[in-house]
Amino acid sequence: MNRVSPKSSLSKRLWLQRYLMLLTLPAVLWMMMFNYVPMYGVIIAFQEYTPFQGFIHSPWLGLGNFRELFADPTFRQSLTNTFTISVAKLAFGFPAPIILSLLLNELVFKRFKRIVQSLTYLPYFVSWVLVVGFMYTLLDPETGVISKLLVKLHLIGSDVMLMGSAHSFLTLVVVTEIWKNVGWNSIIYLAAIAGIDPQLYEAAVVDGANRFQRVWHITLPALKPTIIILLILSIGGLVNSNFDQMFLMQNSMTQDAANVLAVYSYKTGLVSGRFSYGTAIGLFQSLVAFVLMYVANYSSRKLTKESLF
Fold it and tell me: How many CB atoms lie within 10 A of CB 212?
């Protein structure tokens, strides 16, 4: 009996899917050009790089930049700020789209549901430049609508400038992050809910299950794989903060709280011209993100049998 060799079988599959591969070729080339080719530049994290000497002739330092990095108190502060902000975003921001998708799914009036969806999606398309500009206007202690409302509710004093307070910085970061992204992130969960068999809900109604019980015993278990995958990805991103948001929200009074790794890398690498030191910070972020994702994926596979790979 003749057996088809794996090589010929692979060649046959490639030939049958040649048109699909041609369609994906531009995306693959784009990814190679902008995601993989620049990775060669990581070498400058181990050099005292200067643009005039280039990659080849710049002095080799080995781990010198990393030794300086771990001895730098500003780096340690930025690392602490990064994890503090990221954990707060994960704790409050990750459940928000799940709750929103569950609430939207329970709405009976379809027209009202579409209006709510549209209103929650729109902030995602607004740039952080406009968002932070609105925040300065709305939270102005003299003319800001939200500031005046908080003063009337006796939550803050009349002279408090929220955008200039290091104590309120974390709260503002988390609230604006949720407001901007909750609608867009809920799309994935709504798509997963749409794939649930309606007969399961019908059977639950016949058995006398109320609305909360249907959500708890049908909707949430069906969302479990999606929630776990997105949670793994979110844990991998704990060391990466939103640079646009942090950079725009910082000012002279909140710069210590806003000095996260992304901002610190920008200031040292580009503003101060220490390209090697800034690259070392970025490489450290990538390595920590990989370790966090691997640990989260491994733990999820052992505990829930769900994982990315």
Answer: 9
Return d(Cα 233, Cα 307) in angstroms, integer: 10
* Buried residues in 138-162 as b, exposed as e (16+ CB within 10 A): bbbbeebeebeebbeeeebeeebbb
What confidence tens digit (pLDDT) does each residue in 183-215 have? 999 999 999 998 888 899 889 989 888 888 999
Say what the pTM is.
Answer: 0.86
Nearest of 257, 264, 289 to residue 278 by alpha carbon: 264
At residue 60, φ and ψ (nearest 5 deg) are -85, 130
For the segment 259-304, what is each residue's pLDDT rounded down to a tens digit?
Answer: 999 999 999 988 888 899 999 999 999 899 999 999 999 998 888 8
Structure token pair of residue 168:
């309120």
Beta-bridge partners for 60: 47
- Give the span between the Cα atoms of 268 and 287, in whole angstroms: 19
d(CA 19, CA 233): 32
Report the distance separating Cα 309 and Cα 307, nearest Å.
Answer: 6
Give per-residue pLDDT as tens, 216-238.
Answer: 989 999 999 999 999 999 998 88
- What integer best gives the mean pLDDT of the chain? 89
- Amino acid letter, residue 76: R
- Rounded Cα–Cα distance for residues 49 and 274 (Å): 8
Is residue 224 within 8 A of residue 87, CB to CB? The reply is no
Per DSSP, helices labelled H in 72-161 are 73-93, 95-106, 110-121, 128-138, 145-152
Give the 3-state secondary structure of residue 43: helix
Nearest-angstrom CA–CA distance, 77 and 57 = 33
